[in-house]
């Protein structure tokens, strides 16, 4: 693959740019491609979490301090303040970014560049279009699926990038909208001359949160020394008076947490024996010693909260907003989604 820049632009925040960058870097690494990462602008340039994660897991950063400027990934700049009708990139800033990219390209054949989104600041579309022209980059435009996303909106966002647009990706398409997007929106875009690289289905694993995030969110306390606090939790089950047998009810899913009263050791034991990754015990009482011993043996963290079970379950409603891409497991999962649903050959053809 020749030297080049793949510029990822999204229509708004939380569309999945970092997931896409990580997934592509993982796929490229599998084929032996020398690829690197660059995030030229950040809201927190002194400690950007995207840069920290990618540097640690893909670029061989020596530690997990999160400091910018790690090998192969230059420090980002603050987000530009561009007036709606002011000058776009400018020669000074453009020269700085070209120099940074040139330094990366001395060691990598491809630079995966995570751009600001189209709503990051006034005038962003014109700014990012000029950035693409300055670097002669190939652009991937990423949309997070939402009700009301139309071909007209996508075309308007794609137009400033002209011939540099490699294609559009629609991310997080809900299961009951996949066919509609593929046969409706995607077909309409292709008919209008806008290339579509694929539609990625919504994936529960990408919305998972860690045990530690759950503990922080609920403000609970650990019953004993916590273990596996980085485990990803995809589902929550309430342990109550269930009609099914315990193993049938609790054994349906992987990566689950169970919420139940402290006074129900029967439910706690059954859930522990069915692969539960975290126990959330309500109403504040300590569990029995044999539950503590069983949890310790199985390395399952046990969290104690003061509220009742239903209130605790309701309090978890906002957790999805805490989900982030900073997990090697999520990167591998997203890379697999790309294999299955993205026209990788078409993207490779544009790059090559």
Low-confidence stretches: 62-71
Strands, total number: 15
Cα end-to-end separation: 6 Å
Structural class, judged by helices and strands? alpha/beta
Q: Give the strand line-up of the largest sheet.
A: 2-5-1-6-7-8
Number of helices: 13
Radius of gyration over all CA atoms, rounded: 23 Å
Please give the share of residues in helix. Answer: 25-40%
Would you give an account of this structure?
- The chain has 352 residues and is α/β, with parallel strands linked by helices.
- The chain has helices at residues 17-30, 49-58, 91-105, 124-135, 151-158, 178-191, 211-218, 246-250, 265-272, 289-297, 309-315, 328-341, 344-351, and strands at residues 4-10, 35-38, 41-42, 77-78, 110-114, 138-144, 165-173, 196-201, 209-210, 221-222, 232-233, 235-239, 256-261, 278-282, 302-304.
- Helices cover 38% and strands 19% of the residues.
- Strands 2-5-1-6-7-8 form a six-stranded parallel sheet, with helices on both faces. It has a five-stranded mixed sheet with strand order 10-15-14-13-12, with helices on both faces. Strands 3-4 form a two-stranded parallel ribbon.
- Helix 1 (17-30) crosses helix 12.
- The radius of gyration is 23 Å and the shape is elongated.
- Residues 62-71 have low confidence and may be disordered.
Compact description:
This protein is an alpha/beta fold.
SSE map:
Layout: E1 4-10, H1 17-30, E2 35-38, E3 41-42, H2 49-58, E4 77-78, H3 91-105, E5 110-114, H4 124-135, E6 138-144, H5 151-158, E7 165-173, H6 178-191, E8 196-201, E9 209-210, H7 211-218, E10 221-222, E11 232-233, E12 235-239, H8 246-250, E13 256-261, H9 265-272, E14 278-282, H10 289-297, E15 302-304, H11 309-315, H12 328-341, H13 344-351
Parallel strand pairs: 1-5, 1-6, 2-5, 3-4, 6-7, 7-8, 12-13, 13-14, 14-15
Antiparallel strand pairs: 9-11, 10-15
Helix pairs in contact: 1-12
């Amino acid at each position: 693959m020749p030297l080049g820049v793949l510029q990822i632009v999204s229509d708004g925040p939380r569309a999945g740019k970092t997931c896409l960058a990580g997934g592509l870097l993982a796929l490229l690494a599998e084929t032996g491609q020398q690829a690197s990462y660059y995030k030229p602008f950040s809201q927190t340039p002194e400690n950007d979490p995207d840069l920290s994660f990618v540097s640690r897991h893909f670029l061989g950063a020596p530690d997990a301090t999160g400091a910018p400027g790690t090998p192969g990934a230059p420090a980002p700049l603050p987000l530009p303040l561009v007036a709606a009708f002011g000058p776009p990139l400018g020669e000074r800033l453009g020269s700085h970014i070209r120099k940074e990219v040139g330094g990366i390209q001395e060691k990598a054949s491809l630079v995966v560049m995570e751009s600001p989104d189209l709503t990051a600041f006034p005038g962003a579309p014109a700014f990012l279009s000029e950035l693409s022209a300055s670097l002669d980059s190939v652009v991937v435009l990423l949309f997070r699926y939402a009700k009301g996303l139309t071909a007209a909106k996508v075309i308007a966002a794609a137009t400033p990038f002209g011939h540099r647009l490699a294609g559009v990706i629609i991310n997080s398409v809900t299961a009951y909208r996949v066919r509609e997007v593929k046969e409706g929106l995607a077909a309409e875009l292709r008919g209008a001359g806008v290339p579509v690289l694929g539609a990625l289905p919504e994936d529960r694993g990408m919305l998972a949160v860690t045990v530690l995030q759950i503990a922080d969110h609920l403000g609970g306390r650990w019953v004993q020394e916590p273990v596996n606090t980085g485990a990803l939790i995809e589902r929550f089950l309430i342990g109550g008076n269930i009609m099914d047998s315990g193993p049938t009810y609790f054994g349906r899913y992987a990566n689950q947490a169970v919420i139940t009263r402290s006074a129900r050791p029967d439910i706690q034991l059954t859930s522990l024996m069915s692969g539960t990754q975290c126990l959330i015990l309500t109403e504040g009482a300590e569990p029995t010693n044999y539950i503590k011993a069983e949890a310790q043996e199985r390395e399952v963290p046990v969290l104690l909260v003061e509220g009742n079970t239903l209130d605790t379950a309701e309090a978890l409603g906002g957790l999805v907003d805490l989900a982030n891409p900073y997990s090697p497991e999520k990167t591998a999962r997203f890379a697999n989604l790309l294999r299955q649903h993205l026209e990788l050959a078409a993207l490779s053809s544009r790059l090559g």
